[in-house]
Specification:
This protein is of the alpha+beta class. About 30% of the residues lie in helices and about 30% in strands. A hairpin with a 3-residue loop joins strand 1 (about 50-55) and strand 2. Helix 1 runs antiparallel to helix 3, helix 3 (about 105-125) crosses helix 10 and helix 5 packs across helix 6 (about 250-260). The two termini are about 25 Å apart.
């Protein structure tokens, strides 16, 4: 008997919603499609007998139980743009070789469905939770987290929980996140167009410039902005060519300090710590407006450093005006916390493998709470296609993660 009936079918329906952030509409602050994804999940939760709440179109939650403490599972339903180089329609949900190909398949719609079905199974088995279960669904994770800022102001945040938006076994430390715009004055009138990228937290796979009336286009390979080494940055390639055409100082600075080999050392920002590793910088977007090149940077810094330190280093190194556009504090939960022990026990019970804690550069909703960690959905031996072309979820792993979330909720509710 299927423990999770119609789970794949409902996931396919959710994945077919192109929930990229759009223009705001009444009651839909992040656009119609993101709201349609929320509406689908709320209605699905209600159909399972849970209580569902729309928090003014910014976010929503599905709730079960009456305990004084609240255990939260924090997910997001928005996705990054599809980008280029797909082998399958990015919102066509093609199933091939036991995999579902779609934007959002890993990030973060599959774990959202999995957590809901894990709670549904517990409920149908007659489990009586001592803590209230709440699946919180945000709609603006990829573009600033305004969803969670609004939610936390209008709803009680959980006492503890996890966010299934990273890796197994457990992510108990996340680097600080700093998104900035750097404004460089450019005086070369031969440059009439220059730009690339769509999101600061994606390695850009397209860039171009027009210099002296001649257009040049450059291709890269997209990847998540927290792991720029896994992609090929098209802006880096573009600036390497553009610098050879002009003596403009700003263009040479952008290349040398943000694009060239070993640029972190040249910036004086080759930082790391034993807890969370190396600082990274992704030049995710470049725009040319009003005689200025605007470089948008995604900086992930080690947990033992402070935002002010990192920003000060950047301001000292770059001859540019700098504007902070987003910031998330680092996260660290000690390994001896009961939450982590029970999550690792659930992981071992299902997989038969010893669990452990690791750190990442990615930012998850876990850092919106004091006792919250990231937990899945990517397994240690699994390829990550998050923010890349041909993103997919292996259906076997979908069921495996749902079993893990079932065991975790059973021990923590």
């Amino acid at each position: 008997m299927d423990k999770y009936p119609v789970m794949v079918e409902n996931l396919v329906k959710l994945l077919q919603i192109e929930s990229v952030m759009g223009e705001p509409e009444p009651g839909m602050p992040f656009g119609r499609e993101t709201y349609m994804a929320l509406k689908f999940m709320l209605e699905l939760g209600q159909s399972f007998g849970f209580v569902a709440k729309d928090v003014d179109g910014y976010a929503g939650h599905i709730e079960w139980g009456i305990g004084e403490q609240v255990f939260g599972v924090l997910v997001h339903l928005d996705v990054v743009p599809a980008g280029e180089n797909w082998s399958y329609p990015p919102f066509g949900t093609v199933i091939d070789g036991g995999r579902i190909y779609a934007r959002g398949a890993m990030d973060d719609k599959s774990p959202a469905i999995a957590a809901l079905y894990a709670a549904k199974r517990l409920k149908e088995e007659g489990f009586s939770p001592g803590r209230k279960f709440r699946l919180i669904m945000g709609l603006n994770e990829e573009n600033g987290w305004r969803c969670m800022e609004y939610y936390s102001r209008h709803e009680r945040m959980p006492d503890l929980g996890f966010s299934p938006d990273a890796n197994f076994p457990v992510i108990n430390r996340e680097k600080g996140v700093l998104f900035v715009k750097c404004f460089f004055e450019v005086s070369d009138k031969n440059l009439t167009e220059c730009g690339g990228g769509t999101r600061v937290n994606m390695v850009p796979d397209r860039a171009h410039f027009v210099y002296g009336g001649i257009r040049r286009d450059f291709k890269g390979i997209s990847a998540h902005g927290s792991q720029p080494h896994k992609g090929e940055n098209a802006i880096h390639k573009m600036m390497a060519h553009l610098k050879d055409l002009t003596a403009n100082g700003a263009i040479h600075v952008i290349y040398e300090l943000l694009c060239s080999e070993g640029f972190l050392g040249k910036l004086g920002m080759d930082l790391s710590d034993e807890v969370s590793g190396q600082l990274t910088i992704n030049l995710g977007r470049l725009d040319f407006e009003g005689g200025k090149l605007i470089a948008s940077l995604d900086i992930r810094y080690p947990v033992t450093f402070k935002k002010e330190e990192v920003l000060g280093m950047l301001e000292k190194a770059l001859p540019a005006s700098i504007e902070v556009i987003n910031f998330h504090r680092p996260l660290y939960v000690p390994e001896d916390d009961e939450l982590i022990k029970k999550l690792l026990a659930a992981y071992k019970k299902v997989t038969g493998k010893e669990g452990y804690c690791v750190g990442i550069g990615g930012a998850t909703y876990a850092r919106t709470m004091e006792r919250c960690v990231a937990f899945g959905p990517i397994f240690p031996d699994e390829e990550s296609r998050i923010h890349t072309a041909d993103e997919y979820i292996d259906i076997r792993n979908l069921y495996l993660m749902t079993d893990i979330y079932y065991e975790a909720l059973k021990s923590l509710l």
